[in-house]
Design brief:
The protein is α/β, with parallel strands linked by helices. 34% of the residues lie in helices and 28% in strands. It binds adenosine-5'-diphosphate (ADP) and magnesium ion. The site of adenosine-5'-diphosphate (ADP) has 11 residues, from strand 2 and helix 1.
Length: 217
């Protein structure tokens, strides 16, 4: 599903990734683990084509991510759901509306919104909190809304960047259990984290990064 071949990315003098190669197969659950500055977020941004590498190849399914045209970018990104640490929920919208927006942006017909939003709210266990605003939700609940919003577009791939970053261990476990559930339903998951405890607990494939290189698979 995802293939990096000798990818190098620099920001000015900083080499964020150096000759990174790895492959993630359909339906896999993979951790990108490493300390802050290791290059994890850079990998996720490259998959999203938010940035381009200096050299190397990146494939997402049959698509060549580096060569994808401006016109085809939305199509590529539609297949990816993102859960990022700085949750980015809209404060003046309810949990329900925050999820609905993802469908509006994609141009999904309005008649289908309610069923799809209700389905993902149920999946993350927030059906009874859907009319609350972000300020009325806990950190764990906000992160679950964020996951629901990523799921509602029905992506093939979920990218999660430090999804447990601001959460205590109990809430972090909840999020990871949800991601496992989503993975069991067939979606490919890539989680970037520096949290070794979480990685040890889940017993999934781990790609270990340090200073822009893969040091262990
Ligand atoms: N926009 C940027 N400009 C300059 N340096 C950057 C930028 N983004 C990331 N870096 C640098 O690239 C390296 C990798 O960063 P990043 O991919 O964010 O690592 P991680 O997510 O593992 O913490 C770090 O040294 C970071 O400071
Ligand atoms: Mg990061």
């Amino acid at each position: 599903m995802i293939k990096f071949n000798k990818v190098t990315k620099t920001y000015g003098d900083v080499t964020a990734l150096k000759d990174v190669s790895f492959e993630v197969k359909d339906g896999e659950f993979v951790f990108l683990m490493g300390p802050s500055g290791a290059g994890k977020t850079t990998i996720l941004k490259l998959i999203l084509a938010e940035i381009s590498p200096d050299s190397g190849e990146i494939h997402f399914g049959t698509a060549d991510v580096i060569k994808v045209s401006q016109k085809d970018l939305p199509k590529l990104r539609q297949r990816i759901g993102c859960v990022f640490q700085d949750f980015k929920l809209l404060n003046e919208r309810t949990a329900y509306e925050n999820i609905e927006i993802a469908l509006a942006v994609l141009g999904v017909p309005e008649a289908k919104w309610k069923e799809r939003v209700d389905k993902v709210l149920k999946m993350v266990g927030l059906s009874d909190r859907k009319n609350l605003f972000p300020s009325q939700l806990s950190g764990g609940e906000i992160q679950r809304v964020s996951l629901a919003r990523a799921l509602v577009v029905n992506p093939d791939l979920i990218l999660a960047d430090e999804p447990t970053g601001n959460l205590d261990w109990e809430k972090a476990d909840e999020i990871m259990e949800l991601l496992e559930k989503v993975n069991a339903e067939g979606k490919t998951i890539i989680v970037a984290t520096h949290n070794e405890e979480i990685v040890a607990k889940l017993k999934k494939r781990v790609i270990k990064l340090a200073s822009g290189k893969i040091i262990k698979e």
